[in-house]
Amino acid sequence: MRSSTKAAALAMSLYLILGLVGASEYQFGTKVLAGDKDIGRPLFAMPPTDIRYWNTGAPGYDDSDVVYLVTAPSVSANDVRLTPFGNLPAGSKVTPADNDIGMPLTLFLPTRAIRFLNLFGSPRYDLNDPVYFSQAAPNSVVNDVRLNATLGTGLKPGTKVHDFEPDLNLAFGAPVLVFPLPPGLGLCFFDVNGNGAYDYWDDVYMNLPSGFPAEVYVNNIRLSGPV
């Protein structure tokens, strides 16, 4: 009995160690650059995935609501927070012990998508273009969510667009990066612990171009933070 308990504890310890060794050290909302350590890692399709919000106050989506990358109609383990919740930052994953576990989620409009601002006039999405979870086309609106830092503004990933900010009411570029949601084509994960399924340890990416086989490539966006 004692030996089996020790074996289980050892297996769990190895699981934790291996997971931490393989996980990305890069922060949520950073773009993959040439020379980054995760370039070339194989990527796999996420389970059916959507972006929804937990309505924490008044009816309708507003600044106080938490936005998640989700796989179920309520907040579930391994969902990714795209905006902060309390002291849990954007990019953190939900665990069974968190206070938001099981909270009901609300759908955004069918026009929801991941889009970019073509700020530098190139024909397509490039390394300097900021990316957003957008409620609707054609322009950025209040409470759209920044998925990476907006160059030169100090506006951080996981923050929402507010009135009078420099990226409000700007025209999104074409094509849409991830649309429609679901099935969320272009959202992928690196299987850190090699178990063949998406779980807590795995790093989530917005991967372009979409399609498989896929690997981490320059200008992909990391949609989860280090565990």
Low-confidence stretches: 1-20
- The rounded Rg comes to 18 Å
* Residue share in β-strands: 15-25%
> Structural class from helices and strands?
mainly beta
Main pleated-sheet profile: 5 strands, antiparallel
Helix content: under 10%
Explained architecture:
By secondary structure, the chain is mainly β. It is built from 1 helix and 12 strands. Mean pLDDT is 88; it is low at 1-20. The protein is globular, with a radius of gyration of 18 Å. The strands form 3 sheets. A 5-stranded antiparallel β-sheet has the order 11-1-9-10-12, with no helix packed on it. The chain has a 4-stranded antiparallel β-sheet with strand order 4-3-2-5, with no helix packed on it. It has a 3-stranded antiparallel β-sheet with strand order 6-7-8, with no helix packed on it. The protein has a domain at 2-46 and 184-222. It has one helix at residues 2-22, and strands at 42-45, 50-54, 66-70, 80-81, 106-107, 113-116, 131-134, 145-146, 187-190, 203-206, 214-215, 221-222. The longest helix has 21 residues, at 2-22.
Present the secondary structure layout.
Layout: H1 2-22, E1 42-45, E2 50-54, E3 66-70, E4 80-81, E5 106-107, E6 113-116, E7 131-134, E8 145-146, E9 187-190, E10 203-206, E11 214-215, E12 221-222
Antiparallel strand pairs: 1-9, 1-11, 2-3, 2-5, 3-4, 6-7, 7-8, 9-10, 10-12
